[in-house]
Structures are given as structure tokens and as C-alpha cells.
Amino acid sequence: MSGADGGAGPGGADVGGAGRAGRADAGPLLARCDPAVLLAVVVAVPVVLVPLVDPRPVLVLWLAATVGAVLAGGLRLPRLLRAQVPFLGFAASVLVVNAVTRDGGTVAVVGPLVVTDTGLATGAALALRTLVVGVAAVTMLAVVDPGRLLTSLHVVGRLPAQATVALMVAHRVVQDLPADWATVRRAQALRGPTVRWARPARHGSRSRRGPDEAPTVRLPADVRSVGAAAFALLATTIRRAERMAVVLETRGYGALPPRERTTWHEARVGPRDAVLAVVVLGACLGAVAAGQAP
Fold this sequence. Notes:
With 294 residues, this protein is mainly alpha-helical. 59% of the residues lie in helices and 4% in strands. The chain has helices spanning 35-48, 55-71, 77-83, 85-101, 117-143, 146-155, 161-191, 223-251, 271-292; strands spanning 106-110, 113-116, 195-196, 216-217. Keywords: Cell membrane, Membrane, Transmembrane, Transmembrane helix.
């Protein structure tokens, strides 16, 4: 952003800009769409599918979404299927709960539980709906750069500049958490009694440890050590967030009126985005109509 919003953020990062890229001109088809439109479509999909309780149209929609994610999103099928595992667990629980709690014709009796045909059909539709939402969410996360998404939300979605910058900084902090956790754990192990150096060589024998060989360090796995590391990580993250907030306030991010504020990479909604919304939402509405047909 220009003016009081311009310049680099903490650590020289372009917090107010678009991250690594502006509008992508290469890559998969979905990566060239506006991120705010992609997010809106992903949020709208489960809302449109709420009336659908027939599993057959939802199954067709899930297969179409999987093919679209591979062709238009550039995702590999094995990776996409692995990303479906968390959604599969939730979908299975939804199927089981509906199968034994809804009234209908008896299909099977498992102990005190009665499985009904209506419950199975409704549960299968809800489970497949979960998988459809999972495919859409995983595809969006795979093709959208967070910097472009926040810039698009600011320009297209009219998200305030203060919220945009705060979300970008929070994203950067979350990205650094795994490395910070590893650093805290290594420091904790080096200070504890679990550091083991190679035994000194006996008189007349050669040492097995080279001059540059590091000590053997075992990370403490007890609850107290893990809790202490988590507290240290929390304190470090809070201090870093406080410093970033002071820097952003000092540099005047978000101080300019919206009409005077500019962005490094402009975000625009084009025909490609309109086609995406029409195709996806049209497919969802078609599935709903097919499920409600007699």
C-alpha cells in the first residue's frame, strides 16, 4: 500500500501487499481466478446443498468435484485422496449417527441400535456432502496464495486495511510456529540431563567421535517438559505479536482513507471468475433439483 500504508512490514516483508505474487498469470486454471471469488464459492457450496438429502446426486457431484480439482486445480489424485482422510472420518460419524437415529424401515438390528433405510439414505447424503465440501476446501487451500487472498479480500471484499494487515501478520506468525517449536525443544534438550557425549577414548586408542561430531541429544518427552516448551512458545509468540503491533502502529498502516490507499498488485474480478461461479453453483443447483425430482 502506498503513502502511510506503504513500505515493507516487519522483517522487510510486504505485509500490506500481495505476498509472493499478484494475480497469477501461470499455473492451474483455478490459481488464475480471484481468491476472494474462490473463497465465496467454497462458502456458498454447502449452503446451496442444504436441501439435498438424496445420496445419488451428491455422489455424482463429489466425483465431478474430484475430477475438476485434478484438471482445473492441478492437484494429483493421490494427494487429494489423502487430504480427504480427515473429512472421511467426520463423514463416517455422520453416516452412523443418522443411520441409527432416524425413523424408517428397519434394515438391520445391531444390539440395541436399529438401522433404518431413511437414516442410511440421509446419512449417506450428508456424508457425501461433507466430502464435496472437503474437496472444495482442499483445492482452494492448494491453489490460493494467502497474500493474494488477503489482498483480494481487501480490494474486492472491502475488508478494512487494519484487519487485512493483522491477518497477514498472524499468518506469518503461524508459519513460523513449527520452526520456533523445534528451536525451543532443542534448547530444552541441550539444557537438560539428556545430552550424551561420546565416551573419552582410552589410552592408546582412537576416539570414535570426530572433531566436528555433535552430541547425541534426546528430546525430553515427559508432560512437564512438553508443557514448559509450550508455555515458552506461547510467551515468545505473544512478545513477537506485540512488537509487530507496535511496528505497524508506528508506520501508520491503515491510516489513509480508503480512497487514497493503493495496493501493490491490483485484484480484479474478470470473466474467468464469473464462469467459475456459474459452473460450480449451477452444478450444485442442478444436483439439488435432481434430488428433489419425483
